[in-house]
Amino acid sequence: MFLGQYRHNIDSKARLTIPARFRELLADGAYVTQGFDQNLMVLRTDTFEFISKRVNQMSLTDPMARELKRLLFSTADHVETDNNGRILIPQFLREVAELEVEAVIAGVGEYFEIWAPNPWEQQTARMQDTDANAQRFAMLDLSPGQS
Prior knowledge:
The chain has helices at residues 20-23, 45-56, 63-74, 91-96, 117-127, 130-136, and strands at 5-9, 15-17, 30-34, 40-44, 77-79, 86-88, 102-107, 111-115. The chain is globular, with a radius of gyration of 17 Å. The protein is an alpha+beta fold.
């Protein structure tokens, strides 16, 4: 599981060092794609393939399904970590997320996200709004289950 947040620099060759604790989970490679916010998502190969199968089962006649397919597949790139634990982020994806010199890597459970520092700070400010969180998440059943 991808947990925590880290700040790393993007080097002059557009490589981003992945946190050591994430690298083992990427042994079979990964896919980087545009996220749903102003960010990138990095999914393990098995997770990306699972999502791909689900998306490909959607009707071609559904305009929202077509948009999701375009978003997911036209911006996806297969990546592997090099010997130093870095991945290469394609220029078009760096532009989408406005990544320049520094990036924030945020674990989100089954995948992790890559953010430029300013949008991440805005995101964390929203996450710190306890009143808004209570309203936003009220409909979700987050009660711990009984074992």
